[in-house]
Amino acid sequence: MTARLLHAEWTKFRTVRGWVIAMVTAALVTVLIAMWAGSAGQDQCGGAAGGPVTCQPDVPLGPGGEAVTDVFYFVRQPLPGNGSVTVRVTSLAGVVSSEQLNGPVTAGLQPWSKAGIMVKASSRAGSAYAAIMVTGGHGVRMQDDYVDDTAGPPGSPGPVPAASRRWLRLVRSGDTVTGYESADGTRWTRVGAVRLAGLPATAQAGLFVTSPDQVNATGGAPTEATAVFDHVSPPGPWSGGQIGANGTSYPALSGRFQQVGGRFTVTGSGDIAPALPGPADGYVSPEHSLAGVFAALIVVTVVGTMFVTAEYRRGLMRVTLAASPGRGRVLAAKAIVIGSVTFAAGLAGAAAALPVGARLLRANGKFVLPVSALTEVRLIAGTAALLAVAAVLAVALGAILRHGAGPVAAVIAVIVVPYFFASPLGVLPPGVADWLLRVTPAAGFAVEQAIARYAQVASSYTPRYDYYPLAPWAGFAVLCAWTALALAVALVVLHRRDA
Length: 499
What we know:
- By secondary structure, the protein is α+β, with helices and mostly antiparallel strands.
- The protein is built from nine helices and 21 strands.
- The protein has helices at 3-14, 17-39, 293-313, 317-323, 327-363, 373-401, 406-422, 430-439, 472-496; strands at residues 68-70, 72-80, 83-97, 105-107, 114-120, 129-135, 140-144, 148-151, 166-173, 176-182, 189-195, 202-210, 214-216, 219-221, 223-233, 239-243, 256-260, 263-268, 272-274, 283-284, 367-368.
- Strand 9 and strand 10 form a beta hairpin.
- Helix 1 (3-14) crosses helix 5 (327-363) and helix 6 (373-401) runs parallel beside helix 9 (472-496).
């Protein structure tokens, strides 16, 4: 491919005013829809109508500013300065409630039920903490500040049967908290160490129990867990209390504890984890501001197909191929030009839409979940790349189908339609929706997912709640693979057919 051929294709594009205007429109519509989405639904978290709103979510904020769930039962005492807490967990059992209010309660332990010991900056929900625990089905874990999770040694049990009791220990030294576990209370294994920035001189330390909802495709059922502790050190006095809201309307699932001599029985429900967007009101993830990408995608798809089909319709493809007999080079030049122009338009649109949309969302009563600067860069660049590859796919389909609205309809059918049926409409079973977003070009939308999955969080990670089955760049790679396949077929068609 020569610079001359690329220049020729670029000249074709820029001299058609309608195509240039369409690309500018794609960028503008991305921003305008972000502004509309950000302005809809005012005053979700208080404030005078039409006036400035200081928006906070209906959940507490963690040390990193993220929305979190911090609901558990805590049996605690002050820990002044450096020190340690040691316990033995002798049993862990649970119950699951019906999804109906005041429905039946049956025995069952949620896999992420947690029972253990914790050092926490304060009793305020959302404050910094480090904890080591046994779980209902994931062994011994050390977790801190809601998002971090470290597995214990291989072979550590999930539930705690009497034959496999676990000893747990936390040691504080300055801002560093180190967790240990043991099978016999003599030989200790270090699980992890974390630094809690700003941990006060006197922290809160003690025993805790919590148990998240049993999640399924249609919702969740509240659960509770009960753990028995002994060999608790240091000695009391101990006081028990609920941290955070109860998190459930089921009176049977309220936290409590009982102490008989050196034996503690503690019951709790809830979770200590990131609060994830989905069915909850009052907070959204940043990609909410990129809703206009769907309209922009249709615009660039139309331009991409017309970049090829217009030459066939006017009989100019023969001139193009006569001037440059290398048909593969012609197809590649068209793909590079349309991809580059679309990437530039998408980059401009996404770079403006993300901050503008977020600002309007906050001003109109929504809490936008914070993400890192690197994630924001990925959202902007990934959106531009998504549009660019979709436009190249349209070029390939235009070269295959040559005429009519078929190429545009084909791109919409393989990208937009699967996404809408699998995600926002939520009309497909989760398994089918998951499959569609793995194997169709719609998998490319995964590049816009801002909020990560957390293995330690019991949540409905389904397309209905904007979670994709593939990682962001893996989903984008699926779209690229389909585009490469379409380009290969287009090349074969170009060689076999007359212009």
